[in-house]
Amino acid sequence: MERTRVISEAQLQAQKDICRQIGAYWQEKGVTPLAFVDTYGCQQNEADSERIRGMLRDCGYEMTDTEEGADVIVLNTCAIREHAEQRVFGNVGALVHTKRRHEGQKIFLCGCMMGQDHVAKKIKSSYTHVDGVFNPHQLWRFPELLQSVLKTGKRVFAVEDEPGNIAEGIPVVRQNDLKAWVSIMYGCNNFCSYCIVPYVRGRERSRQPEDIIREVKELIAQGYRDITLLGQNVNSYGRDLGLGIDFADLIGTLAELEGDFWLRFMTSHPKDATKKLFDTMASHDKIAKQFHLPFQSGNDRVLKEMNRRYTSAQYLELVDYGRAVMPGLILTSDVIVGFPGETEEEFEDTIKLIERVRYDALFTFIYSPRRGTPAAEMPDPTPKADKNRRFDKLVATQNRISEEIHRDYIGKTVKVLVDGREGEVLTSRTEGGRLVRFPGEDSLIGQFVEVTITDCTTWSLVGTIK
Ligand code: 5AD
Ligand code: SF4
User: Fold this and answer.
1) Which of 39, 65, 226, 252 has the lowest CB atom count within 10 Å?
2) For the whole model, what pTM was predicted?
3) Which residues of the chain have pLDDT under 70?
């Protein structure tokens, strides 16, 4: 196996020194520079953006929430579907005008889209107002790239491909005072046939358990109450480390830490989710009883073509086990309709699976061909209109189920974490991430409380404090 490249302390220190030099550059000008970081896509990107903000803060930048007048703009992009890419291209195009209105504005693009050669080339040739591009492997070098652009005015393209690295100790500016993301591993080895992620984020590599434990301890001490462990497939955590520690061991250890908090994780691949993990969840109060377990399709032929390496029966067995050891387990999932060659009957297997499992929520996607993936080469005779119709049926089915589950909450008492105020009421989230509004004092913000549910709307619950 390819050894993970660990970015050395000396290399990271060199980046920190560059941050100081950039800070001095702005200080000399007597200017406090402004930075705008915009994130597309998943939580992994959110977590990466927090690190980009951390590096920018160390360079003396203050964050702003608009591209207008920002001295540096960073767009952290997503490549998972074509629609996401089109949005990015549209927004990057519009930045020509923003840049004209603010002399010296520097524009950087990063994230998964920049891990694709053809995208980086297109930016180079057709979006000449973009000053810098870096792929996910080069994120830790952002200060050096920024300095180069500031010093020389020349464009930089840091898009060298590699199996992947780990960089510990990049500064972080978190976006929320209660909820935090902690990446425990990077990359993906699964090569599901439709998915671009393994090509742009490299091979799986796990952070050392002690680094993760230290970070989580610090977060708890700082008052974070809802901590999500992140990875493309957290269930294969530790395999590359050879320490005999798997994901269940890691989360079990974290759940033993002192303090009042919820631990969650995403995402899990069903082929690697273990009964041991469900048992560990069941035996720790601090692990939220919520599981995001993407099934993608309810049909075994389609699952095989997707290279998912489980059958619908194996998937259902896992779900049943999880529910047996954790009654009331909140289950969410991802599903794709219109995979190349999916027939009407095969699609109906997906509907059947949804009816059988009754997810609390589903993330539904229409298949989008991604250049360079095996599925993009498969014949795909189904007309777009048929795929849209399937998609609408899927969404309607899930909406009905979600509403039924929602109504069942009325009369029940649930533990929630209070996270803010909206006019007259406090807002809070259940263990499963459901929004609950109820009247209460500001002093409850940041606390766990018990709320009795009295009513529901389509997307949220209403309650009174117990
Ligand atoms: N087309 C449609 N959906 C996709 N996903 C990943 N790749 C594609 C694609 N090419 C979905 C999967 C995955 C989620 C993050 O995005 O359902 O679990
Ligand atoms: Fe993509 Fe499959 Fe890896 Fe998830 S597990 S990131 S869907 S290749």
Assistant:
1) 65
2) 0.95
3) 1-3
